[in-house]
Amino acid sequence: MAIQCAYCNGEHATPAEVRQCWHDGGRQEVPTSGDEALPFDDGGDSAVPPESTAGPERTSPPSRRPAPAIAAPSPNVPRGVAPAGAGPDELGRHVVIEPGGDVPAPWADAQRLVIDAATLSDPVHALVFLRAAHHARERLVIELAASFEREPMLMTEAAPYELGPTFAFDLEELHHVVWTNSVDHRDPERATWILLDAAIAAGAVPADGPGDVQLSDGTAVWLDGGPVRHTDPIDGV
């Protein structure tokens, strides 16, 4: 029984012939090491498949290149509905400031990380730094010297076998770790935090005492934008 082939749109007698067609039809060799360039980064032409003297004419599959980044707005919640605080040191909340901006007192001794155009072009080193602080609950001062408010919605048409196990959308992760546990203090008169705004939009109210918000039953809670983990009560909350 003939097997329909998705690579050449013809038919083959055995699975082995289908696999050979896959090889002959322009399969890309993609490195599995993150230190090597991906095939769609080199700007070169796709490899030309070897000629065949038998079987139906084969055509190379379409080139698989990353689609351009699409900027998406932040979650549709009112911003700045309540002033965002630094929170306790145990939660390791960061602060985002303008280049050369004043650093609020809770972050006076924190390390500083600059996010600029060069960082967005190559975010790997900043990601390593942010991941470490994220997991260690260490406060950071993030000096934002580039437009990075909108979440980059990245995608690729490449198949998983082409990308390999080390592939990641680094810019999306960078956006997440920059903003998810950070107070935006670029306007000192209106410090905001997306997690606080989202909690209030969901029905919570700002806490009067210790804690960030109060739930519908009156329970005060802290908001933690860091990795999922157990946290013992802080100041009784």
Brief synopsis:
The protein has a domain at 82-221. Helix content is 21%, strand content 14%. The protein has 6 helices and 11 strands.
Assess the beta-strand content as a share of residues: 5-15%
Fraction of residues in helix: 10-25%
Strand order within the widest beta sheet: 5-6-4-8
Total strands = 11
> How would you spell out the order of helices and strands?
EEHEEEHHEEHHEHEEE
The total of helices stands at 6
Radius of gyration: 25 Å
State the major sheet: 4 strands, parallel
Structural class: alpha/beta
Low-confidence stretches: 25-74
What's the rounded overall pLDDT mean? 76
Structure characterization notes:
With 237 residues, the protein is an alpha/beta fold. It has a domain at 82-221. The chain is 21% helix and 14% strand. The strands form four sheets. Strands 5-6-4-8 form a four-stranded parallel beta sheet. The chain has a three-stranded antiparallel beta sheet with strand order 9-10-11, with helices on one face. Strands 1-2 form a two-stranded antiparallel sheet. The protein starts with a strand and ends in a 16-residue tail after the last strand.
Sequence-ordered SSE layout with sheet pairings:
Elements: E1 3-4, E2 11-12, H1 15-24, E3 70-72, E4 94-97, E5 111-115, H2 117-121, H3 124-136, E6 140-144, E7 151-153, H4 160-163, H5 170-179, E8 182-184, H6 194-201, E9 205-206, E10 213-214, E11 220-221
Parallel strand pairs: 4-6, 4-8, 5-6
Antiparallel strand pairs: 1-2, 3-7, 9-10, 10-11
